[in-house]
Amino acid sequence: MKRNMPARSIPHDRKVIERLRNDPLFASEYLKAAMDDEDEPKVLLIALRRIAEARGGIAQIARKAGVERESLHRALSGHGNPGFQRSRPSPRPSVCGLTVEPV
């Protein structure tokens, strides 16, 4: 008797990037969730890096944004300094906000 072989598994990162590429609503919610994570600021960098990979890669995103590829790569790496410091909410009301919408 022949057993059915299980389907080959797909690495999690590859599957997430595939879904980010094909589902703008998922990408939007994914980025919103990363922005809401106040415990670990690197979560946002990881999310931005995955979205960049899904949208053609760091080089293509850098070209479209008019920045150097190396600068964008460094900013989205875990070792760079993107100049976007996240802090804990303060008791005073926020003056501005950032929203994410699917495109």
Point out poorly predicted stretches: 85-92
Query: C-alpha Rg, in Å?
Result: 17 Å
The average pLDDT value, as a whole number, equals 81
- How many E-type strands? 0
Indicate the percent of residues in helices: 40-55%
Give the N-to-C terminal Cα separation.
51 Å
- Strand-and-helix sequence, N→C? HHHHH
How many H/I helices?
A: 5
Would you mind describing this structure in some detail?
With 103 residues, the protein is mainly α. The protein is built from 5 helices and no strands. The protein has helices at 12-22, 24-36, 42-54, 58-65, 69-76.
Topology of this structure?
Blueprint: H1 12-22, H2 24-36, H3 42-54, H4 58-65, H5 69-76
Helix pairs in contact: 1-2, 1-3, 2-3, 4-5
Quickly list its features:
103 residues
Quickly describe the structure.
Helices cover 51% and strands 0% of the residues. The chain has 103 residues and is mainly alpha-helical.
